[in-house]
Amino acid sequence: MIFKQFYLGCLAHASYMVADEDAKIAAVVDPQRDIQQYLDEADTQGWQIKYVFLTHFHADFVAGHIELRERTGAQICLGAKAQATFPFMALKDGCIVEFGHVRIQALETPGHTPEGISLVVYDLAKSQSKPKAVLTGDTLFIGDVGRPDLMASAGMSAQELAGMLYHSLHEKLLRLPDDTLVYPAHGAGSMCGRNLSAETVSSIGAQRSENYALQPMSQEEFVGMITKGQPEAPSYFGFDAKLNKKEHATLTDALHRSLKPLSLDDVLLHQAGGAQVVDVRDPKSYAEGHLAGSLNIGLNGKFATWAGIILDQKIPIVLITGPGQEEEAMMRLGRIGFDHVVGYLERGMLAVAARSELIRETPRMTAAALAAELCTTHPPRVLDVRTEREWNEGHIDHSVNIPLPHLVERLHEVPTDQKLVVHCASGYRSSIAASLLEKIRKTEAIDLIGGYEAWEKTWGRHSVSSQTACKV
Fold first, then answer.
1. What's the DSSP call for residue 124?
2. I want to staple 91 with a disulfide (CB 3.0 to 4.6 A). Which of 95, 204, 406, 422 is the partner?
3. What angle do CA 36, 37, 39 make, to 5 degrees?
4. 110 and 16: one domain?
5. Tens digit of pLDDT for each residue in 143-175?
6. Do 212 and 261 reside in the same domain of the chain?
7. Which residue range is the domain that position 228 belongs to?
8. Residues 315 and 443 in one domain
9. How does strand 13-20 pair with strand 25-29?
């Protein structure tokens, strides 16, 4: 048996290939939508990709099961309770898929979603009865368990799903041998849980002793604990979960439609028609000069996640990129099913250089400069677009906290009577916020360079008043 993990950092997503060296057959588990790495691995090793498993209908990305089926003829395998519009092999509890020395046994482990399964992997050349690993999807993470609140819109309460999750963990996964390796579908940074480790592999024994959610407690205690304090789910999660259930166009087809160079006049026509113009350059480049009315969501951060949160799922998208970035930007949007890109500005901002009336700049300010301005008789107002939890852990005194996902709906709370400085933790989210304010409110916001991290290096972690800053 050959086992390989693939990790996609920007989505904190792990996928897997399990193959038999003699039979030359492989299975892919929870693939990302851009599948070339799996095809390349199979081609290099001489494998046939015969199966593609989804442990559940993922909400944070569009999986590559349709792509792998179309390119390789692989059989799609889902939990028996899955409701999909495409043909699939339904795996009930205990169902086995076997090829060569590889045995994959399905365990029905609902809780994160109703149809969730975990896959127990055996290397039959080493043991017929002792599993090598378990691929737990979003049921069990390293350091956490799957959140049960994402399927509320499907008619199941978080409490109901949390009860299922308790049984899945204690009656299924924790009954595996302690040395069984645990490979989840996500790591630190994913919004599918709240305490995920940066480690990408563990064991049942280690999780039994170290994972807070697996410590001895009643089902009632577990349900109460796991349904409270979950991070807010991004708005596109429901969209992606539904897309994963349906027959849909492949990423290759989407890129073929979207990868079209547009003249500046074409971009302006699309923009006048309501299209979302997205500049994917870094905040500094965007601040130095950008097309008026464009939004900045940089490729250098969690681009797909923030694009899914900020952008509309149906309104056409036009991209402005740095040299050679257009295909990467479209592919990363495609990972979350945002296939409605109509093209990109040919030559990027060079195409706008002669049209100064179309160019805007975002003013930026250092932490030291902000401290100095807070000492004046007319200090600026400070808008903090971090999460409430981040704000509670430390903030600039008298700042207004509006988390970025809620900025548009809470625009009426944004101060308009004074100069406005906006910040996040490092400067990525604040650039998005400044671009939103410019586009929607025609408000010029000053972006704090380096965000709260830069401020904290000077003034410390706790709230700081203008009086404190002025005394230093």
1. T
2. 95
3. 60
4. yes
5. 999 999 987 556 789 999 999 999 999 999 999
6. no
7. 2-239
8. no
9. antiparallel
